Each structure stands twice: as structure tokens, then as C-alpha cells.
Amino acid sequence: MPLLNEKTVSDILLAQHQHQQLQNQIPDQSDLDATHSMLTKPTGAVDVEKNGSKFAMEMPKSLADRLADKIPAFGLIMALISVVCFSIGSVIVKVLTQMHSIQVLVIRCVIQFVFYTITALIYRYPLMAPKGHRVDLALRCVSGTISLITIFIAYRLMPLADASTIHFASPVFVTVFAYFILK
């Protein structure tokens, strides 16, 4: 899987835009002390008002962020584990000749759905996208599904090395499309 699979280019640009907005509206220390107790609640971002303007304060760091602070090269380790697991999954798709690629994909998606739903419920993440991003998320789901279907079928029909090489060339296409679509 490409490393950008977990966080799309649009998510990165949105996070950068939000970061710039927060940098323009940084509160002073007294405001941070006053909102410290609100920030420890697991309910999402907290709106803070200063000088008549509202801005969102970030929640405490997630488990992944805390581990990244404690373990050097945590992101690199996670990327390597991802590559190893995806490669094993690709080999399994190639070896399971008695099942169709779509069946393997459906089983994978059901298992992922169960684990992600449990995680979202435990950490109280919202199950629906924000109102302004539902169409974006739906398009992301459709394109991701088409991508997985086509790569699983390619693993079946082509040599594994060739299909993987073409699949891992996706960052090049993401860069080109991002340049023209996202400016």
C-alpha cells in the first residue's frame, strides 16, 4: 500500500489549513490554563472564544502520538509493518486460487469494519463524517473500493511482482492529480 493511503492528500491539506488558522489565533497562557480541564475530556475538539473569535483547541495526544514521542522512528516502524502485512496479504490473494478475488476482499472488508467500528466506539469517534465532507468521504470510499478490487484482480491475473510494482507507483499519480485538482 502506498504510504499516503491512510491519510489522503486532501486530508493533509485540510490539516495544514486548520493548523495555519490555529497559528493565527494562538491563545495566551491564561486562556490555556482556563481550558485545561476541558481538554482532558474525550469528547472531541473544544471551542474556545478569545476576543470575540472562536477557534478549536486540539484534544490531548492520541495513543499513536504518545508512542511516537517515546519510540524513535515510530512512523518508520509502522510503515515497515504496513508494507510487510500488505505484502503477506498480496501473497495470500495470489495463493488462494479456490476463492475469487472479490470474496477475499469482502471477507477482508467485513473484518476491517468490525475492528474499526469497535475502535471508533471505544474512543468515541463520530461514526459519520462532518456535514461538509460527506460527499468527499463517499467518493474516497468508492475510489478505495475500486482500487482494492482492481489490485486484487491484478494480483490474480498478473505476476505478483509486476502488479505490486504498478500498484506502488500510485504516489506518482497522486502527486500529478493533486497538482492539477488541488492546485
Automatic annotation (TrEMBL):
The chain crosses the membrane at residues 71-93, 105-125, 137-158, 164-182. It is a multi-pass membrane protein. InterPro entries: EamA_dom (IPR000620), EmrE-like (IPR037185). Keywords: Membrane, Transmembrane, Transmembrane helix. SUPFAM superfamilies: Multidrug resistance efflux transporter EmrE. Coiled coil: none annotated. It holds the Pfam family EamA. The keyword Membrane applies. GO terms for cellular component: membrane. Residues 74-183 form the EamA domain. Its main location: membrane. It is found in: Membrane. PANTHER family: ACYL-MALONYL CONDENSING ENZYME-RELATED (PTHR22911), SOLUTE CARRIER FAMILY 35 MEMBER G1 (PTHR22911:SF6). This is EamA domain-containing protein.
